[in-house]
Design goal:
The chain is of the alpha+beta class. It has four domains: about 50 residues; about 190 residues, Orthogonal Bundle (Penicillin binding protein transpeptidase fold); about 375 residues, Beta-lactamase, CATH 3.40.710; about 50 residues, no CATH class. Helix content is about 40%, strand content about 15%. The strands form seven sheets. The chain has a six-stranded mixed β-sheet with strand order 5-2-1-6-14-15, with helices on one face. Strands 7, 8, 17, 18, 19 and 20 form a six-stranded antiparallel β-sheet that branches. The chain has a three-stranded antiparallel β-sheet with strand order 11-10-21, with no helix packed on it. Strand 7 and strand 8 form a beta hairpin. Helix 1 packs across helix 7 and helix 10 packs across helix 12. The longest helix is centred in the N-terminal third of the chain and has 51 residues. The protein is elongated. The termini are far apart.
Length: about 750
Amino acid sequence: MAGNRNASRKSRYGKSSVRKRIKITFALFLVFTSIIFSVGAAIYIPLIREAQDKVEEIGNLNMKVSSSQASTIVSSDGKILYSLMRERRKVVDTRKLPKYVRDAIVAAEDRRFYTHSGVDQTSLARAAVGLLQHSSHAGGGSTITMQLAKKLVNGDERSYMRKLRDIAVAQQIEKVKSKEEILDIYMNYVYFGEGALGIQSAAETYFGKNASQLSIAEAAMIARCIRTPSRDNPLREYRETKQMTNSLARRDYVLGVMKEEGMITEEEYQSALEEQPKLKRDARPDRDQIFGAPYFVAHVKAELKRDLPEVYANLETGGYRIETTLDYDLQKTAESAVAETIRRHRSKKVTSGAMLLIDGQGKILVEVGGPDYSKSQYNIVTQGSLQPGSSFKPFIYATALKDGLINANSMVSNAAVKILQTEHPPTYWEPKNLGKIGVGGQLPLKTAFKLSVNLPAVNTCILAGPARVVQLAHEVFGFESDIPAVPSIALGSGTVSPLEMAQAYSVFMLKGNRVMPYPITRVIGPDGEVIRDYSPTVKENVLDSSVCETIDDLMRAVVESGTGTAARVVPNARGKTGTTTRAKDAWFCGYSDGLVCISWVGNNQNGRALPMANQVYGGTVTVEMWRDVMKVAHRKYAEGGRQVPTPEVSAIKRPIAEAPQAELPKPVDVAPPVVGPANGVDVAPVPAQPDPTNGTELAPPAVEIHGKEHKRSEAKDDMVSVEICADSGQLATAYCNETITRKFRRGTEPKTHCNLHRGTN
C-alpha cells in the first residue's frame, strides 16, 4: 500500500513538474517571440513606410521599362544611323501572347505567382533554412514581384536588409498592380541572356521569330534561361559543346511543372518533349546595330573616342545621343553614285571608290569610305594613304604664286628635266608631256594647268623648292601626311587622304581661310544635358586671297575647257583631275558655291592596290560620280536661297605677304633622300605610264637633278602687251580658238606664232 501511495505521489509530482516546465517554456517562447516580433517590427515597419513612399515610382514601372533607350548616332535630318546598348529590349504587350508563353515564365520562376500576395511563404521558408545552413550568402525564395522590386527599385546588393526591402516593395507593388500587369512588366524587363532583354528579343535571338510564334517547347526553353542567363542558355551550350543536353533537361523540367499545374495537357506535354529545338545558331548579342552610312559611323565613333573617352566607354549603358553633320538623303545619293560608277566601269578594273563632301564650315555632309563595309571596314576617306597624282598640282602653283615666283599672266617653263635615279647603273627619270604639247619653250600658266601638263608643274616645283612646297602643304593647307620633299611631288608622288584633300581645297574656295572637316555637332547625355557642342574650326588668313583667286580661275578653266569638262553641268564648278602611274588612283577634286567634294576610284583586290585599265582617268571616270552628287547637292544647298554658310572672308584684311628673297628655299641641286616603297612611291627606274587624257604622270622619286639651275625672274618695270593663243601660249594667229592679251617683261614675250592651230589650203 505504501509503495502504491509513493508511486501515486511521484506521478502527481511528475505531471505537475512537466506542466510547470511546459508553462515556463511557453512563457519563454512568448517572450522570445514578442522580442523577435518587436525587433522585426522595428526593422520592417520603416521598410514598409519607405516602400510606400515609392508608390509613384512603383506606379510608373511600365514607363520605366519601356523608356529604356539605346545610345544613338543620328544624321542632321534625324535618321538613326547607329544604336548601341549593352542589352537590347523590345517591349511588347505580353497579354496578347499565347497563354502558354506566359505560363512557361510562371512555371519556371514562380509557380504560385497567382496565389501569393508578393511573397511566397513556402519558398521563403525554404530559403531561410538555406541561409541558416550557408550563412555566407543571402538569396533564394524570390517571387516574380520580388525580382521586380530588386531590379527596378532596390538594386543588386546581396544582404538580409535588401531581401527585407524586396519583400516590403513587392507587397506594395501587388497593391498597385494587377497580376497581369506585373507579369507583363516582368516579361519585358527580365534578361534572357545573349544580350536579349524581354521575351520578344529572346524569341528573336534564340529562334529568329516573334514571341507570338513560339511553341510550348520553345517557350519553356527560353523561360528557363532567366535563372542564369549568361551561363545557362542553349546558344552558349551549343557553341561550346555542339549539343544541348543540359538545355533540354532544363526545358523538360519547366514542361513538367506546367503539366503539374494544369497549364498544359498530357498530350501537349508529350508533344513538347519530342520537339527538337531549331535554334538560330548564328545569333550573336544584338547590341550594336548600324542602320546607314557605316564608314561615317566608324569615323564618328573614332572622333568620340578621341574627344570624349568617358562618353565612348559608357555608350553601351544607353541613353546617349550623338548628333552629326551627315545629310542622310544626300549620303544615299552618293552611295548610289559610287556603286553605279564602279558597276559601269568594272570591266576597266574599277573595283573601289570613295567620296567626301563638306560644306563651307567643314560639316561632313557625305562620307563614302568604300564600296562595301561588310567586306572591308577600311575607311578610305579617313585612313587612305593614296597618291593624288595631278590633283596635287594646285599646291605646287599656289606655292610659287605666294612666293612671287609667278603670277596669273606668267609663262611657265616647259623645259625638259632629267633627274638621276640610281648611280650604278645610272638611270634617270625624265617626265614627259603627253598629247599635243611637246617639250621646250614656255606655256601660259592657265594652259599648263587646265591641260595638266607635266613639265611646267615639275619645273615650277623645282623653282619654288620642294621643301617649300611641303612646308606650305603642312602649314597652309593642313596636310598631316609625311610628304617627301622631292620634285616628283609635282606629279603627286606623296600619299594623302581624301579627308586631307577636302581641307586643302577649302582654302581656295574660301579665299584663304581653311576649314577642318568634322562629323559631330552635339553630344547629349542620358539626362538630356548637352555634354559638348561642336563648332566649325576655321583657320583664317592662311593664304593670300589673290593667290586663291588665281588658282580658282585656273580650276574653273579645267572645267570649262580642260581635263574636267564633264563637270561643267554643275553650276560654277571648279576642279582638278588626277591619275597616277598605271592608273592605280584616279581623282576628281573640286568645289562649287560653298561645297567641296573629293572623289576617288581605284582597283583594290584583297587589300592590294592594283592598276586599273589605261582608259581610266580622273577626268573621265571619277568625275562621273562627282558630277552626279554635286548636281544634287548644289540644288539642295546652293540654290533657292539655301546657300551654304561660309565664314565671312570679304572683310578680313590680309597682308600681301611676299617672303623675302633670302628666306626662300633654293632650287633642288643636291640629292634628296631616296623615297622607298614604304610610303607607296614606286622606285623602279622605268618611266611612269602616261595619262593621255589629263596629262598626269606619276614620277618615280627624284634623287638628283642635272642641268642648269632654275633662276628666279627679277621684276622689271618695262612691260609689253601681247596677244597670244590661250592653248599654246605662242603668238596668236587668225586660226586660234581662244586668244588672250597678256603682259610680259620686255624680252620674255613669245617670238613664234602658234603651231597648234593652222589654216588649211
